[in-house]
Amino acid sequence: MIGVDIGGANLKVFDGSGTHIHYCPLWKETPIREILSEYSFADNAAVVMSGELADCFSSKQEGIEFIVSAVKDVFPGAWFYGTDGCFHQDAVPELAAANWLVMADVLKERYPNALLIDMGSTTTDIIPLNAWDILKGQTDYTRLKAGLLLYYGLLRTPVSSLLRTVSIKGQETGISTEYFACSGDAHVLTGIITQEEYSTATPDSCSPSREHSMRRMARMICADIEEVGEEQVLAIAESFVNEEKQVLIHAVQRIMDTYHCNRIITAGIGSRLLSTWFDAIDLNREMGSYSDAMPAWAVREAFLRTV
């Protein structure tokens, strides 16, 4: 059996020996069937999703039905994990955005009283593992209200979502709200990630290189690099990262205090970054590459416990 996590931007698979991350944006013609066909050697699939929220769907239910249908074309007997903590074979509403819960389901006994922070390309989940009864039934909407979900991620967050102004040559300068640059650019320019780790499409569809990231970041103040100089462009990236760090620290401390968690564990492609900011246990180190696609690993583990 394989474990599958279908997000809005990436499709992740755990096949028992390792994890595989496929760029699969649902807002375009999506190759879900083609990607899963590569794993047709497996006898079945346990699936969890969050891609139903993609704006190509008129509602979350339409997204759920689309994803379930695509998966069943390859794995007719597939099982889908829901926010009720149960597996289903029909396109029920509970399937919406359950990928974070299945991680809690599998890890809550291994790491009691821990706070799990999972940073992906687009969002960051803040999950108190000692609050299972409260977590079940939560939607993305209720988690946003409760501070359990932040729409900031390692690669795809627009720079203008966190910055409104930046100091350029000592003068406060407004930031464009165009999607000129994103967190992937800021993290490349500040050395947090390599250009190889910048694995999603860039805002201008050019390369994730430092040169192109610099050019995109300069556009945030409607400038070319030559107009303001590389030092000032780097200052925009550093300002973004500083703001990002403060937002996450504040949100995590609030949840730690509310649920009386006594340690932090981190997962996802942003696990290494988070572990340095929070002096946390990096599951990438403890579990290897499984952590990069933890919901795919976890949904398979959760299903195997039921058989």
Summarize the structure.
This protein is of the alpha/beta class and 307 residues long. Helices cover 38% and strands 17% of the residues. The strands form three sheets. The chain has a six-stranded mixed beta sheet.
Q: Which strand order do you get reading across the main beta sheet?
A: 3-2-1-4-5-6
**Low-pLDDT stretches:** none
Strand content: 15-25%
Q: Calculate the mean pLDDT score and round it.
A: 95
Major β-sheet annotation = 6 strands, mixed
Could you give the count of β-strands? Answer: 13
How much helix is in the residues?
Answer: 25-40%
The level-1 CATH class of one domain: Alpha Beta
Report the CATH superfamily of one domain: ATPase, nucleotide binding domain
- Assembly status: single chain
- Examine the coordinates and then state which fold CATH places here, giving the name of the CATH topology of one domain: Nucleotidyltransferase, domain 5
Distance between the termini: 12 Å
Give an account of the 3D structure.
- The structure is a single chain.
- The protein is of the alpha/beta class.
- It has a domain at 2-100 and 292-304: 2-Layer Sandwich (Nucleotidyltransferase, domain 5), CATH 3.30.420.
- Helix content is 38%, strand content 17%.
- The protein has twelve helices and 13 strands.
- It has helices spanning 32-37, 60-74, 99-107, 132-135, 140-146, 183-189, 210-219, 225-228, 230-259, 271-278, 283-287, 294-304; strands spanning 2-6, 10-14, 19-23, 45-49, 79-81, 87-88, 114-119, 124-128, 149-150, 165-168, 171-174, 263-267, 281-282.
- A six-stranded mixed beta sheet has the order 3-2-1-4-5-6. A five-stranded mixed beta sheet has the order 9-8-7-12-13, sandwiched between helices.
- A hairpin with a 2-residue loop joins β10 and β11.
- α6 crosses α7.
- The protein is globular and about 65 Å long.
- The mean pLDDT is 95.
